[in-house]
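Sequence in, structure out. Go.
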Amino acid sequence: MTMTATKVKSRSLLGIKELDPSEIVDILNRTAYWESQKDKLTPVLNSHFVANMFFENSTRTRFSFEMAEKRLGVQVLNFSAAASSVEKGESIYDTVRTLESMGIDAGVVRLKPAGVLQQLAEKVQIPLINAGDGNNEHPTQALLDMYTMRKTFGELKGLTVSIIGDIMHSRVARSNLWGLSKMGANVQFCAPDNMKAPELEAHASYVSMEEALKADVVMMLRVQLERHATGILKSAEEYRKQFGLTEERAAGLSKNTIIMHPAPVNRNVEIDDAVVESSQSRIFPQMSNGVPVRMAVMERALSH
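Output:
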């Protein structure tokens, strides 16, 4: 790899797994700076063009990135695969190369296949930011989650974080596992047997629902109801009964425990309606924190 390619790669954010703890701290500190800014628009990157390339739909993540980019004065190009030439058979690689050749300075990429983003990053000369790739990673989600925890508890070291739900298919669980472990937190999983990820067992233990609820942070994952069809879920009601954060379960939490969820939420499946809006819930603050986190990540990508 050339020196230039190495430099570009160091400004990319392909996953939390490859970040040093010091880099995570730098991003979280810079997030605090951006959150403290009163002006909505601080156009420090107004000569830069960024393409948001979403080969998999996600309204919230795309809007959060777009808000972050526009607050920094970035010229934004939004690309949605649903209405694009990718459907005509043009490869993801060709699409990214095409936008690169038109002069974009960075790309935010979300796609279904895991591993493709890493290959793309080797072939292009611009920094890429992972906005979610398959069941591999979702680094900015983990960063905003860690930032939310840090704001509540002061530091991450020593926290016990329970991640509850479909671990097998969750890129959020993986990114949080890598990030929180690097920062000295203890991560534990709770999942139905057919939603466990065996390859992660060396990194985090699986605990019962009762044990999981004793943590400092209880993070519920979205149940992908489309998996009903494959028989992974017997029913939404059954899931709620066994693994949902019901009002009854939430009432038994320590008053210092916070409740998190990457959203979108299936209300009254993995988490009851009233719990989403409860005083211990950080679900909407998490979304707010996503914007300064992505500002920090974008600034890192475009600062030469």
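Check: The chain has a mean pLDDT of 93. Residues 49 and 105 are 5 Å apart (CA to CA).
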